[in-house]
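Why Chorismate mutase domain-containing protein? Reviewers of the renewal asked for a concrete example.
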Amino acid sequence: MTTTTAETTTSPEAPATGQATAQPPAAPQAPAAPQATATPEATIAGARERIDALDDRIIGLVQERMAVSAVVQRTRIASGGRRVHLSREMEILGRYRDALGKPGTALAMTLLELCRGRI
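Here is what the prediction returned.
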C-alpha cells in the first residue's frame, strides 16, 4: 500500500519563524501522450498496465472503506443506534452523483451495499 505524505515548504507570507506550511499533494497527472515511435500495441499495453494498477488501488480503498464502515456500524449499534443512517447514505449518493453523473449513483449504491450489506 502506498502512503503519501504532505510536503512542507516555507511560505513567503509566513513569518520568519521557520514554520512550515503543509502543501496538498499534487493532483494526479493525465497519462502522457503516446510517443510517435510507440506502436498502438505498446500504447495499449502500457495503458492497460496503468488501469490494472489503478484497479488494485481502488480495490484496496474499497476494502479500507468496508473496514471503517464496520467500525461505524458496530459503534452505532453499541450505543443504541441503528446500523444504517439513511440521511448519511443520501449524502454519499448525492456526492457520487454530483461528481460522476447518474452512473455515480449506481457506483455509490454498490459501495454502500458492500460496506453495510443489503437493507
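The radius of gyration is 21 Å. This is the kind of structural detail the renewal will allow us to pursue systematically.
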